[in-house]
Design goal:
Layout (H helix, E strand, L loop, with lengths): L1 H48 L1 H49 L2 H14 L1 H28 L6
Helix pairs in contact: 1-2
């Protein structure tokens, strides 16, 4: 039983390593290609207009690339916030349906009978404290998630 789990983990790790090395090679090739394209554009503008205009053209190109990267980052961040909000709404809607399940209530009553109320009270108290801490962290995480953690 454990051997299948170990084999699955090793197979997925090998695949991940191969894909990561391929992605790193592609990123390196893209970087080198971009360097040569930038050098060719710089030389072309340098020969036609001069050194100052060539430097300004290069700066303008990189400024546009920076704006595109920043725009995609902000769009991705907005999408993640929207997804998190939708997931929170789904979780809020799903929570009452779990508590209204008669099988869950019957199981809970059987657990209370098996353990006993006197032994269960400290466990419930600790669970309530843990739930309160988790709720306070969840409320504080929404305020701090607007700022990137760097």
């Amino acid at each position: 039983m454990f051997q299948r789990i170990i084999d699955g983990i090793s197979a997925s790790t090998g695949t991940t390593m191969r894909l990561t090395s391929l992605a790193a090679g592609a990123a390196l090739a893209l970087f080198i290609t971009t360097c040569f394209l930038c050098a060719a554009a710089f030389i072309a503008v340098l020969e036609k207009y001069g050194p100052v205009q060539a430097c300004l053209a290069g700066a303008g190109i990189f400024f546009l690339l920076t704006l595109a990267a920043a725009g995609s980052y902000w769009g991705y961040k907005r999408e993640m916030r929207t997804r998190a909000r939708i997931a929170a709404e789904r979780a809020a809607k799903a929570a009452p349906s779990m508590l209204a399940d008669p099988m869950l209530l019957a199981t809970g009553l059987q657990i209370v009978r098996a353990i006993g109320v006197k032994r269960l009270l400290p466990i419930l108290a600790i669970g309530g404290v843990a739930l309160g801490i988790m709720a306070s962290r969840a409320g504080g995480a929404d305020e701090t998630s607007a700022e990137p953690a760097e």
